[in-house]
Amino acid sequence: MDSNRKTAYYTLMDVESKKSYSNIALNHHIICGKPDSPAFVRELVYGVLENKYLLDHIIDHFVASGAAKLRNSDLTILRMGLYQIGYMDSVPSYAAVNESVDMAKKFAKGREGFINGVLRSYLKAPYEARLPDRSKDEIRHLSVKYSYEPWIIELWMEQYNKEFVEELLKAGNKTPDLVVRVNTHRISREDLIKRFQAKGVEAELSGIAKNGLRVKGSRLIEGKLYKSGLYSIQDESSMFAVEKLDPQPGEFIIDVCAAPGGKTLAIAETMRNSGKVLAQDIYKRKISIILNEAKRLGLDNVEARTWDATKVDSALAEKADRVIVDAPCSGLGVIRRKPEIKYKRRTAEMDLLPRKQLEILQAASQYVKPGGVLLYCTCTINPYENQRVVSEFLKKNRLFERVEALQLLPNVNDTDGFFICRMKKADRLV
Questions:
Q1: Is 377 a catalytic residue?
Q2: Residue of 329, 377, 379, 421 with catalytic role
Q3: How far is CA 150 from CA 162, 235, 345, 349, 378, in A?
Q4: Could you give all domains of the chain from N- to C-terminal order, each with its CATH number?
């Protein structure tokens, strides 16, 4: 059996059955399966995930009982086959069918004939699966065409016009560039570019993040440059949030929701390995990840501990020059990297997120010195988790004022969707 498709199948089954994050499952199975072409595997996995509702809509036209009634194994193999036939020009149709049948022999025994029949029926009449009529139900039309849960589209329709929302949906289905953050504590951007080029890696300066590089290459977290701490993987939007925090050498800064630690480490680098950054997270296992990364990057100014961000540590009251709250959120801004987020159902727990975000922001504000900075950010595109949380906080906390607020968007800024609000605490001496 083809190792590339087998690796893709295992990844997709983990995402579907175990609710694994696609990036983590993909990296795990590529390491374990050692496929011939990791690039092919990534293209197939993300292609299927980004178009899941559209592929299921097609299956509904060729399977009487519909996609929803199929076992995960059958459904995953069909999605993979249809995506290869319809969207991967590098794969001949006969190869997509034959490989899907071979997979069925191993993972869906007794269903080989069914898989073969559905794919061959699609080959004979690929255009029978028409999209829902837009004039009758625009939300359903867009939901199927771009494969998003309807509530997400409705949410964005509240904020933006229809044309803008469609551009936002399209952008979420595009594969983002890989961006690295240069550890300027150890090397300049220009020197790292030269080191990359010597290894055949394309690199260009980010237009948004001053320490960012957009790169094209393989095995970027396996080589000597990475292991020696010259760079880290991080989106420009996250780097830009740290720039808005504006950390200064020698300061004491708290990151109250630090894991996986990208912003903590960017802050520590910006401070030139001076002062102190206290990283907090509720999960102990994530603290060790942050500390290991600090060691790789050669940073001695990072401390980390487990702490519930909704609670106030009175020993730290008004001790921090700056505090960053990268709050837990719905993640609608990182759909380009984790397409499974598009299929989250709206739940009561999700609706309670703004309350938890406000609780964390309120607790974190207690650590800010008079005249200090409080920065609130999320990786989502949702005013209920962003602008409204900040407004509610400012109503109750007159010592703070909004200095700047902005929403980065993938279709406008070519970054993750990211909300950033910088606030300043009044200097009571003044």
A1: no
A2: 379
A3: 14, 27, 9, 18, 22
A4: 3-128 (1.10.940.10), 138-172 (no CATH), 178-233 (3.30.70.1170), 236-425 (3.40.50.150)
